[in-house]
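Dear support,

I submitted the protein below through the web form. The confirmation email said the job was done, but the results page showed an empty box. After a refresh the structure appeared. I'm attaching both so you can tell me whether what I see now is the final result or a partial one.
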Amino acid sequence: MEEMEGIEDDNHNCRAEAPAQVCVDSDSSSSDTCESTSALLLNSASKILLNAMTAEEYRTVYWPKLERAIEHLLTQSPMDHISISYEQIYSHVYKCVCQQHSELLYNDLMWKITSHLEQVSSELQASPAEHLIENFNLALTQYTAALHCIVPVFIYMNKFYIETKLNRDLRDDLMKLFSDHVAEKHISTLLPLLKKAHSMPFQVKPSTMASVVKGLYALRPDWVPLAPALFSRFIPQIDPPALESQLPHYADQDKKLQMELFHNGFSRGDQSRKRASEES
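What the results page shows now:
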């Protein structure tokens, strides 16, 4: 793919820009500019219609360029920046949709990302149990970062094919791919590890624990009943309202947690001492 300057905001987030719009201005001094712009757009549209893209041209010219760009976005680290022309990707998507290749483009995009996620799942399968939580978090974080770029540059396909004809949304479809091909394959191993790590504070970084549990909840809220106590620690208001009749049960749970912390070396300290603020 030709290297061009990417379209980014100040935070290096990808954003798609639509093709130039025809300007409308009642000021006569700008009428020449508006007419020139309109003529240019009409001429460009005519060229697209005259130069019809065949399925073979899509397969041999346009899709390979898009596939390479998608591969870069899926495999780059969230902290890295790869020089990709987001404007060029968008223009390719725009032309493919205009030339009635939306269905072909959508199927190729889903196939490409599915293939990538199956590879990610295989790598997680080979991951040692003690590193699975961290590696799953890295995989989910990297994928989510890639979608921040992929979804905007495919926005034209999303608007005029996925939303219109499939009654769905591209981001939802792509997140479902991660759920089906990665998370669901590892949830039975991941949840016991998360529960064990939660019972042993700081075995896994709290930020990683929160990221994974919140990520699983975002993917499939119906996983909550598999580990309600775990999810309730990180997701607010998923437990039913507290009942007065259950107060003794809540007190027992709190006592149990305090004992677990004590047995794992977390002392409550000398409670007889006053706080420093109270001594002054």
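Response: this is the final, complete result; the empty box was a page-load delay. Residues 102 and 161 are 6 Å apart (CA to CA).
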